[in-house]
């Protein structure tokens, strides 16, 4: 579905990505974990065309994404939940959700997907006319995910969805990610919370200073001594 080959990205002469290879198979949850500054968000930004690479290739269903405009990617079923939520603070919850469906014309389908989002996040239905800027951090994260789902993505990319959230909200977010996946959405998840991400991932990649250093199933990486020492504090607890 998505295949990255030998991707190199530089900022001002400093290589942020140093020739990474990564693949996302359809129907899987794939996670990319690593410390802050490892290059995880740069990877997503490059996929979305927000950063131009020095070299390498990014293919999505055979399309060369490096030749595509960012605004066209949603039409191909590719969508991003950005780090920091990025909701439109001066618009209501409903207006934010409708913006997610901006490229769709199927009124009936949009209405059905809106109800699906409300079933995933009942709190959003309660706050439908509330200005998004007045929501809590967790509610804004739910709104950001819901807005992306309104585009009916085939591949949903999520950049640090648990960042800055209380532990109980983190549990809810990861439970919802699993529910979205059950509905047929492929997921590429970028996370510092390696414990939570690897517990739900089919495939995991570990990134360090712009390089992919390990790849394996979520279960394999959870029991890997290097990963446990670096990211899990030697103890692995199920958080979902």
Task: Describe, in plain words, how this protein is organized in 3D.
With 240 residues, this protein is α/β, with parallel strands linked by helices. The chain has a single domain (2-232), classed as P-loop containing nucleotide triphosphate hydrolases (Rossmann fold, 3-Layer(aba) Sandwich). It is 35% helix and 26% strand. It has helices spanning 40-47, 93-100, 107-120, 122-126, 137-149, 167-182, 194-200, 218-222, 225-232; strands spanning 2-11, 14-24, 29-33, 55-60, 63-64, 78-81, 155-159, 186-191, 203-208, 211-217. It has a 6-stranded mixed β-sheet, with helices on both faces. Helix 2 runs parallel beside helix 5.
The CATH topology assignment is Rossmann fold
Shape-level CATH architecture:
3-Layer(aba) Sandwich
| SS class | alpha/beta
Shape: globular
Helical run tally: 9
Which blocks of ≥5 consecutive residues have pLDDT under 50? Answer: none
Q: Quick one: CATH class?
A: Alpha Beta
Write the layout of secondary structure elements.
Layout: E1 2-11, E2 14-24, E3 29-33, H1 40-47, E4 55-60, E5 63-64, E6 78-81, H2 93-100, H3 107-120, H4 122-126, H5 137-149, E7 155-159, H6 167-182, E8 186-191, H7 194-200, E9 203-208, E10 211-217, H8 218-222, H9 225-232
Parallel strand pairs: 3-8, 3-9, 6-7, 7-8
Antiparallel strand pairs: 1-2, 1-4, 4-5, 9-10
């Amino acid at each position: 579905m998505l295949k990255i080959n030998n991707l190199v990205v530089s900022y001002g002469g400093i290589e942020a990505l140093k020739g990474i290879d990564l693949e996302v198979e359809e129907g899987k949850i794939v996670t990319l974990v690593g410390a802050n500054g490892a290059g995880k968000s740069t990877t997503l930004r490059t996929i979305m065309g927000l950063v131009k690479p020095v070299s390498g290739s990014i293919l999505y269903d055979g399309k060369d994404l490096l030749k595509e405009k960012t605004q066209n990617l949603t039409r191909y079923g590719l969508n991003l939940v950005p780090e920091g939520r990025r909701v439109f603070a001066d618009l209501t919850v409903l207006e934010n959700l409708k913006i997610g469906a901006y490229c769709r014309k199927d009124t009936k389908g949009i209405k059905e997907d809106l109800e699906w989002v409300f079933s995933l996040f009942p709190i959003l239905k309660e706050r439908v006319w509330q200005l998004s800027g007045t929501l809590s951090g967790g509610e804004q994260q739910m709104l950001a995910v819901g807005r992306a789902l309104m585009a009916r993505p085939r591949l949903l990319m999520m950049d640090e969805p648990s960042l800055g959230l209380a532990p109980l909200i983190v549990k809810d977010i990861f439970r919802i990610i699993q529910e979205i996946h059950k509905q047929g959405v492929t997921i590429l998840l970028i996370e510092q919370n390696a414990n939570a991400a690897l517990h739900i991932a089919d495939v995991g990649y570990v990134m360090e200073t712009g390089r992919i250093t390990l790849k394996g199933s979520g279960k394999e990486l959870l029991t890997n001594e290097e990963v446990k020492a670096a990211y899990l504090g030697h103890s692995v607890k199920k958080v979902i």
